[in-house]
């Protein structure tokens, strides 16, 4: 078989598409796809379905069987070379007789990074690296960031009027945006490992912070067939003054909850609620330390839904990777609550900066997706 860059790109695109099938179930592991090709024919496909299950390469090799000998494997992430919950994929690739491996991107996990490639090359297998690497990284942004920095990928969501207001002066905010926008939010929630909010949001809105099955069941592209397949994110509530009580609706809802506090209280909490005390020298929760804690708990992606104060705190620390704003065609007036509570900046050169990534219309609303603007070197 004659190999060309064009063919490698063609098959890697297919492997990336397959990798996306695990978007709801693979965390804390990355999404990985594998395609095995021989004589211009796909003879095996696989994707990582869940932590602890076979990796993508193993599923593809099982499907290819003895025909894998002399074939090419297209893998979206460097195959593992260490013993974890499953044996190293490199061993099985070598045993199968695969003669060529095309890898989209090197694994950022220090247990793997580069070792899988060296192992394969040592056994005489041709290894090509770097085909559609940005695309493969994009489907695992949280995993890459956690492995490299120790903190998850942070997305901050806000809903506002066209004059940048999030609630009336009396606190009413239901509903500024349309049902379709709120349905879209559920898609982000279900793809996140954790949702961060504040005690103010719990008390003011009586928020549940859960994924609503009724609002997402029509999205067949995520392979959601029934409520039992929904992964509820870890709920993280910042509660420095111990205002959240066992009687709140959020606490009564099943699913793991972390109450992030400065000190314990004497309440009796359900088993699914854990009080986490962050050592701090101020009266405020250290958000960087919180994100580091979540990183140690293998949280790849965080979805922040909160009011102006906490949103402003995240923005000030420059730790927001993506800013997602739903804008409704309504005007709330200058007395209504703003998007962020921030200091009074005195120069445009020091204000937080973002770049527009995407602008889409959802029902009557507009969704803006912005990414952190990188500083020029």
TrEMBL record:
Domain (CMP/dCMP-type deaminase) ranges: 6-120
Pathway the protein acts in: Cofactor biosynthesis; riboflavin biosynthesis; 5-amino-6-(D-ribitylamino)uracil from GTP: step 2/4; Cofactor biosynthesis; riboflavin biosynthesis; 5-amino-6-(D-ribitylamino)uracil from GTP: step 3/4
Stored SUPFAM superfamilies: Cytidine deaminase-like (SSF53927), Dihydrofolate reductase-like (SSF53597)
Cofactor binding summary note: Binds 1 zinc ion.
InterPro entries documented for this protein: APOBEC/CMP_deaminase_Zn-bd, CMP_dCMP_dom, Cytidine_deaminase-like, DHFR-like_dom_sf, Eubact_RibD, RibD_C, RibDG_C, Riboflavin_Biosynth_HTPR
Known EC number: 3.5.4.26, 1.1.1.193
Superkingdom: Bacteria
Residues holding substrate: 173, 189, 209, 212, 305
UniProt keyword annotation of Amino-acid biosynthesis present: no
Cofactor(s) essential for the protein: Zn(2+)
Keywords from the named record: Hydrolase, Metal-binding, Multifunctional enzyme, NADP, Oxidoreductase, Riboflavin biosynthesis, Zinc
Residues reported in the UniProt entry to bind NADP(+): 159, 175, 205, 240, 307-313
Binding site for Zn(2+): 55, 80, 89
Enzyme active site: 57 (proton donor)
Record's catalysed reaction(s): 5-amino-6-(5-phospho-D-ribitylamino)uracil + NADP(+) = 5-amino-6-(5-phospho-D-ribosylamino)uracil + NADPH + H(+); 2,5-diamino-6-hydroxy-4-(5-phosphoribosylamino)-pyrimidine + H2O + H(+) = 5-amino-6-(5-phospho-D-ribosylamino)uracil + NH4(+)
Keyword Hydrolase: yes
GO biological process: one example: riboflavin biosynthetic process
GO molecular function terms noted in the UniProt entry: 5-amino-6-(5-phosphoribosylamino)uracil reductase activity; diaminohydroxyphosphoribosylaminopyrimidine deaminase activity; NADP binding; zinc ion binding
Biological function: Converts 2,5-diamino-6-(ribosylamino)-4(3h)-pyrimidinone 5'-phosphate into 5-amino-6-(ribosylamino)-2,4(1h,3h)-pyrimidinedione 5'-phosphate.
PANTHER family named in the record: 2,5-DIAMINO-6-RIBOSYLAMINO-4(3H)-PYRIMIDINONE 5'-PHOSPHATE REDUCTASE (PTHR38011:SF7), DIHYDROFOLATE REDUCTASE FAMILY PROTEIN (AFU_ORTHOLOGUE AFUA_8G06820) (PTHR38011)
Recorded family membership: In the C-terminal section; belongs to the HTP reductase family. In the N-terminal section; belongs to the cytidine and deoxycytidylate deaminase family.
Name by which UniProt lists this protein: Riboflavin biosynthesis protein RibD
Species the sequence originates in: Buchnera aphidicola subsp. Melaphis rhois
